[in-house]
Amino acid sequence: MTYYPPQYDPWAPPPPPPPPPRRRRRGPAVVLGALGLVVLVALGFVAWDLGRPSRTGGTASPLERTWENQQTSNETLDVDAVADEVEPGLVDIYSTLGYSGQQAAGTGMVLTADGQVLTNNHVVAGATSIKVTDVDTGRTYRAEVAGYSRSADVAVLRLQNASDLDTITTGDSAEVSVGDPVVGLGNAGGDGGEPSVSPGKVTALNQSITATDESTGSSEQLTGLIQVDADIQSGDSGGALADGDGKVIGMNTAASTGYQLGRNGRPADVSGFAIPINDALRLARQIEAGTASDTVHIGPSAFIGVSVSDAGGSGALVQQVVSGGPADNAGLTAGDVITGLDGRAIGSATDLTAVMDTLHPGDHVTVTWLDQSGQQHSTSAALVEGPVG
């Protein structure tokens, strides 16, 4: 699922830039948020293709780390040592988003030497093709999605023809405490190359946020998150939140933005949010085992071929229909309201998404809807393989 902040206008002039990243790159980063507006956004980086040049920039320039060691919990955080420990197990993820002409970028963490990669679901949601670049070697692999949990924002990728990859070292997120020093690492700005490095500390535990997918109208609440004051930015999604020993204790997922500056030009209130690694690994193991559930989808995503929004509690309002897709073939048009799918009532866009996550390409389902005159229709549709859920 790709999340965007509310009222984002890609044609509007960009707001003032965020605080300088921890490394030097060529090309500006897109700031997803308006000046003075603090919103929670997931940290996938999307390059808009609207007849203008891509904002992702060109080839990355030579990089070097630039930061100050921070005093946290009465001890010095050795950022260089943490980064050296974590970086070999990171990958940059680049997705082509189907039916929109967009490109997206994020980060992943290598779990196994043969190419199992942990990331956020929203990094690859909507993707029709995925490429992954090993940060350490620069080698690029094609990837497929082994499975995902939309509600937990976790996905596992499987790299093709990968071997002998370096992996991350994980810690125990149950042992994390407020005030612990941490370092966030990821593909900030989607530029690739050496990961961005953002030191900070844990400011709260067991936090909850709500994120909305504007393409479907559905929303998800993420719970149990680690909150940090590290300067995590767009593109860091799926990256590592490491402790002072270089062990990964969380997966970067979202941040509050607005970049209201305080003293010394630093953000007055920067908050990043990470999924505890224990929770992410539990779901990753379930996916690797091929065990589907109400919240975990295994394999390719089923596709019915509509974009929808809520219809005031009465169903999922069809905004667009993909030409030649299952919904189009069944006779649905924009303005119809889907009220049932596969024998289950649909009261919202989120309901439709939840039912679709339990289905697979090739499944035959009964679709029930109301047309714009209020007349009810019901017919069978054969689902096809579509973009990643």
From TrEMBL:
It comes from Amycolatopsis endophytica. Keywords: Hydrolase, Membrane, Protease, Transmembrane, Transmembrane helix. Residues 7-20 have a biased composition (Pro residues). One of its GO terms (molecular function) is serine-type endopeptidase activity. Pfam families: PDZ_2, Trypsin_2. The keyword Transmembrane helix applies. Coiled coil: none annotated. GO terms for biological process: proteolysis. This is S1-C subfamily serine protease. The chain crosses the membrane at residues 29-48. Residues 299-355 form the PDZ domain. Residues 1-25 are annotated as: Disordered.
